[in-house]
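Pasting as-is:
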Amino acid sequence: MNAIFHRVSIRQFKEDAINEQQIESIMRAAMAAPSAMNQQPWEFYVVENKEMIQKLAACGENTACAAGAPLVIVPCYKKEDILAPGLEMVDMSAATENLLLEVDTLGLGAVWLGIAPREEAMNYVRDALQIEARLVPFAMIAVGYPAEEKQQEDRFDPKRIHFVK
């Protein structure tokens, strides 16, 4: 539970590489997420190539911070063999949150950069990574060792809780 109350969006990164064990741990966490009817629609592009990261960072005005990350993960979801159509982005959100929590647990930082459902951004990422037509780019997650310090704000608001007894 500590990662839930510690995780923040990090947009500035050190140049240090993320090792294979860390990447596997992050991917395991993402794939441990719940999904509708256990459909697990996810596949992930793990980008370490600096030139490609620079290209991805040019996707939109809110994605430029990815340029400084040593790693960018692009979660994608399948369009075929879906057991619960329409819930793919819900599943992907759960996987992405798991990914972000594991990143924090490992002492790394990350930021979730939205791609879907913006067609222009999705097509840009698809073209850049040559993503198969059967997959839909969902987001970009810039990952690295934090080069900035942030404290998580307390977002708890009891006024948003409605009890039905």
